[in-house]
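step=encode ok
step=design start
structure_in=
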């Protein structure tokens, strides 16, 4: 059985140099992501860490993971704003292209901030819901005509 050839990995000369983690770098990455760049797009920038380094930082550094989450949420807000702009500018001549653009922007907003723009986005309840459960008891009874029926057994004092 012949093995499928693997895609060639980067040669050592093509590998990105190590970029150490720092607060200014974190802020720069978060800024780029909040403008709509993905984590993989950020990693392709020449002076940025590799995607594997960014993913490792996401797992190991709580501050980095939180900054990425917030940046993605900001990107979702930006996509939602762009939806409104696109809708206001659409004309009959641009409607078809606008539909494609709007679909992509909606997907981006829903994935970046699902609690606000996702399919199952929920509004926070205004007040707690009170659930009342009442247990009822029944017994089998026979009527004057010989037919059987169910009769509710009410607690004492209740009609």
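sequence_out=
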């Amino acid at each position: 059985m012949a093995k499928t050839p693997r895609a060639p990995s980067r040669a050592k000369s093509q590998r990105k140099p190590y970029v150490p983690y720092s607060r200014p770098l974190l802020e720069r990455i978060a800024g780029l992501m909040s403008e709509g760049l993905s984590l993989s797009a950020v990693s392709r920038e020449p002076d940025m860490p590799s995607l594997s380094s960014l993913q490792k930082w996401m797992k190991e550094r709580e501050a980095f993971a939180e900054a990425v989450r917030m940046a993605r949420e900001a990107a979702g807000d930006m996509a939602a704003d762009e939806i409104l702009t696109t809708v206001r500018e659409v004309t009959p001549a641009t409607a078809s292209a606008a539909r494609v653009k709007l679909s992509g922007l909606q997907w981006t907003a829903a994935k970046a901030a699902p609690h606000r723009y996702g399919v199952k986005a929920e509004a926070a309840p205004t007040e707690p819901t009170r659930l009342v459960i009442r247990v009822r008891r029944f017994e089998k009874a026979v009527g004057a005509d010989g037919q059987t029926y169910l009769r509710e057994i009410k607690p004492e004092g209740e009609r």
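step=design ok
step=annotate ok -> The longest strand covers residues 137-142.
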